[in-house]
Structures
1.
Amino acid sequence: MKSENETLIKYFRPASKQSTQILAAVAAFVADHKFMTNWMTIERDGWKLPCTLDKYDWCGLWVTFGCLKDRLHEMLGKGRRVYIKHYQRSCYRSSCMECYLKWIARQANRATRRIEEYAKLTAQKPIHLMLMVNPSQYDLPYDLLRKRMMEILKIAQWEGGAVIFHPFKFNEHSRQFYYAPHFHLVGFGEKDRIARAFGRYKWYVKIAEERKSVFQTFCYLLSHCGIRKKHHTVTWIMELSYSKVPSEKEPKNTCCPACGGEFVPVYYEGVHPIVTPERHFEGLVDSDGHWKTVETGKWIGNEDNRFDYAPFRDLNEILKSLTV
Ligand SMILES: [Zn+2]
Ligand SMILES: [Zn+2]
C-alpha cells in the first residue's frame, strides 16, 4: 500500500523543517507587531497591512473528500482502494486573520520558484534592494511613485524581478506604524548603477540585509506589505514580467487521480480513523467498507463552498505543516 501511495503523491516535495521555522518566525513577528500597535487600523489611500479581517466561517475547517469507486480503481490496477483527501480549508486571502500565513507561504513559494529559475537560467545571484521615496514626494499618488520607480529602473538597466510595495514603517519606540512608502526589489541588476540612478531623483537606495534564503526574504517582505483591493502584492517587471515569463499554472485538483472521477464529500464510519484527524492527507487507502459518501444536506458546509478544493497537492509541503 505504501508504494502505491508514494507513486501517487510524488508531486509532494520533501518536508522542509526550515521553511516551517521561517513561517513560525513570521507569525511571531506579526503577533508582536500587532500587539499594542496601530496595525489593525492604519490605512492610507486604501492601503492596509495584512491580517486585519475576520475569517470566513469555513477558514481552517477540516474537510474530507474522496473517490470511493474502489472496484473501478481495482480494475485500473490500483488495488481495492479508495482515494481520500483530508485537508484544512483556507481562503488564502492576505487579509484573513486565520489564513494570512498560508497566503504568505503560497506567495513566497511561487515567487521563490520564479526567482530561482531565472537565477539558474542566467547564472546570476538575486539581490534585494529597498527604494525609499524622498519624503518630499510622499504626497504623490502610488501610481505616480510606481511610474517614477520604473523610469529610474530603466535608466539603471535593472534586469527584472519582483516588486513589493510597503506603505508603512514601524517606529520601535512609539510602537506605531506610519506612512513611509518604499519599494522592495528582489531580482537582478547592478547595485551601484541603481544607486546612482535613484540618487538623481532624490530617492534612497538601501541594500537590504542579507537573509538566509530568497524564500525567507519573501516571507518577511509579505508579512507587512501593502494590501489594497485589486492590487497584486507581488508584481513582476522587465525580464521577469508575465509577458516574458508566463506564470506557472497550478494544476486544478478537483478529480480523482486514480480514475479521473469526481470527488465527493466523504466520512469514515469506523471506530479507528484510518486518516488522522487534523493532519493533511492525500492518497489511496485500503477500502474496508467504512468510507461513506456524505448525503446532501448532512454536510456541515454550505452551498457557498463550491467544492473548491485546496490545491495543496501542488503547494509546498510546508503548507501542510501550517495547521492552525
Ligand atoms: Zn481565511
Ligand atoms: Zn477514483
Note: The chain has a mean pLDDT of 84.
2.
Amino acid sequence: MADIERIPTGIPGLDEMMNGGLPYPSTILLAGGTGTGKTTFCMQFLFKGAKIGERGLYFTTFSEPPEWMLKFLSTYDFVDPKRFGQEIKYVDLSYTLEKAKGMEEVLEAIESEIVTFKPKRIVIDPISVMEGLLKDDYRRFLFRFATMTKNWQTATVVTGEAKPGSPYPLELAYIADGVIIIYNTEVGRLRRRSLEILKMRGTSHTTGKQAVDISERGFIIHPGL
Ligand SMILES: Nc1ncnc2c1ncn2[C@@H]1O[C@H](COP(=O)(O)OP(=O)(O)O)[C@@H](O)[C@H]1O
Ligand SMILES: [Mg+2]
C-alpha cells in the first residue's frame, strides 16, 4: 500500500491523532463557533510551515490590517514576527470581494497570489462569510476553489462557522477531504474546549472529542483527557 505524504500541523497532540500529520495535498474544513480558536489554529499551522521552510498564504475575508492581526498574535509563543511578511503572506480579500463582479474575479485574485507566492500551505479564514457576498455563486466558487488548490498541490485549511442547529457548514464539508470541529461547550457555569476529527480521507484517525487548551503556548490538544 502506498504511503500518503503528510505534513505536520504544528498543533501539539493533533498529528498523533491521525498517524503523523495532515494528508498532503488536501483541503480541510476547520469548523467552530466564534472564539473557539480557529484563527489561532490556522496561524500555528502557518508558523509551523514557515519554521520548516514551507511558505504559507493567509487569506482573510475581514478588512483587518496585518499589524492588528500581528498585535493579537504576538501574545503567543509560537509567533515569530519576522516570518510574517516573509514565509507567511497575509492577503486581505475584503476589497476584492466587495468590488468583484462575480466569483471568477475572486478565484483569479486567489490564484494569482498562489502563482506568485508558491505556497505549500493556504488558509482562508473565515471562508463562510463569502456565502453572503457570492450568494448563488458560493457553491460553485467552493468547488472551483477546491479543484484549484488540488492542482497547485497545497495543504489548505478553510474555516467556517456553523449556523445554529448544525455542528458544521454542510456546503464546506462537501468540498473538504477532512473535517475538524472545535467545540466550546458549556459545562455548568464554565466552558470547555474540545476538538474532534469527524473525517479525514487517506488516514485512520482518533474519533471522539479530545480536550483542548489555549494559552500563551497556543492551541494544544490533550488526547485522552
Ligand atoms: N494569549 C492567550 N492566552 C490564552 N488564551 C488566549 C490567548 N489569546 C487568545 N486566547 C483565547 O483564544 C480565543 C480567540 O481565539 P481565535 O483563534 O481568535 O478564535 P476564532 O478565530 O475561532 O474566533 C480568545 O477568545 C481567548 O479565549
Ligand atoms: Mg477568527
Note: The helical segments are 38-51, 66-73, 94-99, 103-117, 130-134, 138-151, 170-175.
